[in-house]
Design goal:
By secondary structure, this protein is of the alpha/beta class. It contains six helices and eight strands; from the N terminus they run βββαβααβαββαβα. The longest helix is centred in the last third of the chain and has 24 residues.
Length: 231
Amino acid sequence: MNNFQAFSDSACDPPVRGFLHAPDEADGNGLVLAHGAGANCNSSLVVAVAMTFAERGITVLRCDLPFRHQRSFGPPRPGDAARDREGLKNAVAAIRGTVKGPIFLGGHSYGGRQATMLCAEEPGIVSGLLLLSYPLHPPRKPEQLRTQHFPKLRTPALFVQGTRDPFGSIDEMETALKLIPAKHVLLPVEGAGHDLGFKGKTGENGLPALVVETFVAFYSRQAQNNFSRES
């Protein structure tokens, strides 16, 4: 059974607010998952991905970014980004108190972008990243790339991108990801746009299951490689 409950930590600034998915048989790993610019942590994609990870045994904290604490709708403002990253940092610290194993961080669109920027600023804060529809550039403005921090990103990362995403084509993503020195993998979703074509599917053959399987396989290889080097 997939259990989740409201979660909050007001002792930090910015505070952490969201929902904690606690698996019946937790494997010790944790994932903080954030939403996109036009949504909150109750978006259907974020909820379905969180539930599917929890079914796999991973504890998930899906959280509202600080800009959403202030405004119930509308996109973040230019001055919100730094505080949103602080919110992600506090969420990582919050889930660290509930699990014993590695912590991962990710999100959809804007939430994922802020996650990559936090990891570029603070290498080692988490063990890996999950980026759903990374917003490589604004629609119809391919020259405005959001990759300035990529050369500093040393956290392994899984990118999930629709083949019809106006924020970045598969070819554009493949070129941009060459800037990242860390291990990374790109999972294309055929025919999907920026919402990844998500229509509420949560079954074994749905998008969330594909994301989880790819994520587990990728990070299992990373863990094995680390073990081999240490040996």
